[in-house]
UniProtKB/TrEMBL annotation:
<comment type="similarity">
    <text>Belongs to the pterin-4-alpha-carbinolamine dehydratase family.</text>
</comment>
<keyword id="KW-0456">Lyase</keyword>
<protein>
    <recommendedName>
        <fullName>4a-hydroxytetrahydrobiopterin dehydratase</fullName>
        <ecNumber>4.2.1.96</ecNumber>
    </recommendedName>
</protein>
<dbReference type="GO" id="GO:0008124">
    <property type="term" value="F:4-alpha-hydroxytetrahydrobiopterin dehydratase activity"/>
</dbReference>
<dbReference type="Pfam" id="PF01329">
    <property type="entry name" value="Pterin_4a"/>
</dbReference>
<dbReference type="GO" id="GO:0006729">
    <property type="term" value="P:tetrahydrobiopterin biosynthetic process"/>
</dbReference>
<dbReference type="InterPro" id="IPR036428">
    <property type="entry name" value="PCD_sf"/>
</dbReference>
<feature type="region of interest" description="Disordered">
    <location>
        <begin position="1"/>
        <end position="23"/>
    </location>
</feature>
<dbReference type="InterPro" id="IPR001533">
    <property type="entry name" value="Pterin_deHydtase"/>
</dbReference>
């Protein structure tokens, strides 16, 4: 069995750190990013989440790459601004997960 290269270990560490900080998100390797679909019971809840997403995004200085929504769902993709997700990008993902269950 071959040992992982330093680059592979670095990528795995970044992935593990991101998923640990933001449970419930899906990891994508190229580019390094997190994706999650949030479901809500009504449009009012969806709209409230979108407003809070904007507030958190502004507060952390992190803008999701993609936000797609319908009446009762929001899809969010947060892509790395560098070679790996930053602490702020992971913090935004974690905060959005918390907001969705609050």
């Amino acid at each position: 069995m071959m040992e992982p290269t330093a680059l592979e270990s670095s990528k795995e560490s970044a992935r593990d750190a991101a998923l640990s900080a933001a449970p419930g998100w899906q990891w994508s390797e190229r580019p390094p990013s997190l994706f999650r679909r949030f479901q809500f019971g009504s449009y009012g809840q969806t709209r409230q989440f979108l407003d809070r997403l904007a507030e958190q995004s502004d507060a952390l200085g992190v803008q999701p790459q993609n936000i797609n929504f319908g009446t009762t769902y929001v899809n969010v993709t947060i892509s790395a601004s560098g070679p790996n997700l930053s602490e702020s990008e992971c913090r935004l993902a974690a905060e959005l997960g918390r907001l969705a269950t609050a």
